Amino acid sequence: MNKQSGIHYLREHREAGSSKPVPVEVTRIRDTVVAGLGDLLQGAFDAVDDSLFELANNARSNNEQNRYFEAMREIRIKRKGVERHFQNAVAQFFATPPHTGHIQEDTTSKQATADSLSLVGNEDLEEQVALNAMITKAKAHFQGPLLQLQTRFSQVYPEATDESPVNPMAPEHLCSAFTEAIQALEIQIRERLILLKQFDRYVVSNLGMLLDEANRILIQAGVIPNFRYHGKAGKQHSQQSDRAGKTPEASQARAESSSRESLAAESPVFEQIHHMLELQRANAGQPPRSNDPNIRVIGANELVGLISSLSVDTHVQPGENLSAGEPLQIDLKSVIEQLLSRESPKDGKKPALKEMDEDLINLVSMLFEFILDDYNLSAPIQVLISRLQIPILKVVIKDKSFFSKATHPARKLLNALARAGIGWSNSDEKSRDKLYEKIHSIVQRILNEFDGDLALFETLNEEFEEFLARENRKASLVEQRTRESERGRIKSQKAQEKVDQIIKKKVGRDRLPEPVQTILINGWSRVMFLAYLRDDTEHRWQESVKVVDDLIWCLHPHQEDTERDQWVRVVPGLLKSLRAGLEEVSYNSSKLDEMMGQLKHELAEAFRTSSNAEIRETPEEDTDVSEPAETESLAQNQTEEAAISEYVAQIDSIEIGNWVEFRLVNGASFRCKLSAVIDEADSFVFVNRMGLKVIEKNRIELAHEMRRGRLTLLEQGALIDRALDAVVGTLRSKTA
């Protein structure tokens, strides 16, 4: 794929898209930035190409694969145009820079959100949320360099003012230029999100070096050379006068912006959810709570203190059964509102939650609503996890990274509890189950001991992982023995069926002498059975079948001299092979000599006989009578195959280790996991969580079970990940 560097592009389009002269101090920055962004963008497009190719390779259907290949083709064809459009737009920012600023930006953003995003579809909203998260994260990560650069650019550009500063390199401008550039691509939302993800990864995340270089160039030019920025609180020192606004409104706006930026850095997932909930409030016409003079917004620490008072009611005694009864359902929002109503007003102001804390409470409630409705969780685990709503709420208020970090100790523990309990059935004996006792004790310790220190979750998670490792080792050994036993049994069964089929076919086709039938059915079939089992290593199966064919051929009369000569050559080796095979399978030695003698006699008689010999092929029966029945059976099979075809595809998608639930006719159910798929017998073997076999069925039988609603595939994904996906999907549908 041809690549065109940003520098080469600038040499051809130095003043592209602009007739207004760029200030002398900024020309060098513009050339450096446009060239650097061009190189970074090439890396992003290469990564997009790799991602789409990987998705196409792993596609589950031809339609899905074609979709990814078409997207690759579309992007490859229009890639250069997108790059030129993006670089052109960035260069234009330096010629006529758009205005920036916290107060103006926040107001404009909220107005645009309320007016436009409330009317867009799910796909547009999904793209906008991803874009906002990218911008917010970049502004939080590069807060210092961006503030310095904005202050310096505002000195360079004469049209900039204190209320309306400028910064051509602001993340929102660069992201806007890119989204405008990719409008020409005719691709679906998933591919657009992949583009945005790689743009974030390769371009936006690497803005730091370009921001530093721009600041360095302006410092060399003498533009506020002593300006410094210290810390996230926005403290800066300069020999120039402080141009930032000092009104209470400006301070509050800066504080809210800083809070949002730190939130995006701490938990981009929750920031997206918080943004969608803001949209719902804006669409409902709810004013910001901080603007109400009669309300006192309480802080996080005070909220945690209020929630801790709830934990007193959740303390349990050591012998109490926490999984008794139905899952615990708590309306967290109502409970917190009741606690606030009990608080006495201070300074005549009524206590209320911050919108962000209220969103946290709503999000935890929605997460547990999903958990309590999740059929994939076994009933005892569902009840136990429902007891953790209050502790988890305290966790997320203190540490919002719970929603973004898969390694968060509380999140890891919840996922581990759900994963370990997926194999439980309602019929399991809980009182004598070590795994149940362990999970029960973990929940009990969290309810009694959690005081806000996440170290408790880390300790419990380590203990639980060690416990699971020991239990899984025992279950794995049992499962391995079960799997090997089943493979051996099924292969033996398949071998016996194959041998019986061949012997029946070959013996039934000819009227063979009784001694010959006895040797083949009672003796040589055992030789063929062992040959079939050993065929993978010794390749003796075809040889054993050939002995049967040779024996039957030798018992036929042969009149031609060439055939009789061949008979003379074949019989000695045939008799030798028969005796050796029968001796190998320990055939009765006292009968072996007698039967071999009878066989030699029959062969000799066959050699002497003429065409009037008894041995002849049995006339084939008239098959016309059975044709209507066969046609009817074939049509019925075709109809049945069409009806279950979609279910067969789902059965084929089950991987080793995946859990399923079977429901019996009497209403009982049990859970098990797929341990082995034995292709030669079309057999699916399922075991329980102890590694013991519980059921075995073939592909068609499983498809019929699924069609009747008696087989359910259980989702294997991490509990919190699935819950978050469900919550985000619900919010998108409500926001659209």
Automatic annotation (TrEMBL):
InterPro entries: DUF1631. Residues 1-21, 232-265, 610-631 are annotated as: Disordered. Transmembrane segments: none annotated. Residues 249-265 have a biased composition (Low complexity). Pfam families: DUF1631. Residues 619-630 have a biased composition (Acidic residues). Coiled coil: none annotated. This is Thymidine phosphorylase. It comes from Marinobacter salinus.
